[in-house]
Amino acid sequence: ELKVEQNPLFLSMQEGKNYTIYCNYSTTSDRLYWYRQDPGKSLESLFVLLSNGAVKQEGRLMASLDTKARLSTLHITAAVHDLSATYFCAVDEDYGGATNKLIFGTGTLLAVQP
Amino acid sequence: DTGVSQDPRHKITKRGQNVTFRCDPISEHNRLYWYRQTLGQGPEFLTYFQNEAQLEKSRLLSDRFSAERPKGSFSTLEIQRTEQGDSAMYLCASSLMQGAEAFFGQGTRLTVV
After folding, report:
1. Which of A1, B30, B35, B113 could disulfide-link to B91, CB 3.0 to 4.6 Å?
2. Is A99 close to B91, i.e. CB distance below 8 A?
3. What is the pLDDT along chain A (114 residues), one digit of tens a residue?
4. Region of residue B11 (left: phi > 0; alpha: psi -120 to 50; beta: else)
């Protein structure tokens, strides 16, 4: 059974600082997603990572995937208050995306302090 | 097309009542998914459809839950004899095809009192 773990669960950062959120998963998969969720809202897609060594960047966020280590990272550069949200990684349970059935991590609550 | 649409956005019901939620996927998306998210947790997969066919159901989906997608377009999720443990956000997502990225709706927040 695929399990997805994120750490840390809670992250309090100062504006301008850098930090990394880690996502480990337990079985082979070839696609990993990062989502952002604001309180009471739905999930906003940030990144789709489809291959080993994939790296994607959007603004102050950069995501990478190491399928051999079963590890993805979400790196935050020079954090700003607007990045405060809960971030989820999700792994497709089926290799090749046959079902698109996503297993989510528990989320990382990011609070960026001025 | 403005994305995946869910209705209602909020529902408060008394324990024991039945409730039904609706999801309208992005036009031409043939895959539709239901997830449930409880407070402080990540979403959990419930079921998914390929067109009108329900292809997989999670063990989380007890006999009180039923989902349909009668014409391969919108879907409904019904919960019979609601319990307090059913209180959660119910999220719908759709994707164009197998292996394509899924897009989520705004969700329906259910509170059972």
Report:
1. B35
2. no
3. 889 999 999 999 999 999 999 999 998 877 899 999 998 888 999 999 988 888 999 999 999 999 899 999 999 999 999 999 999 999 988 766 667 789 999 999 999 998
4. beta
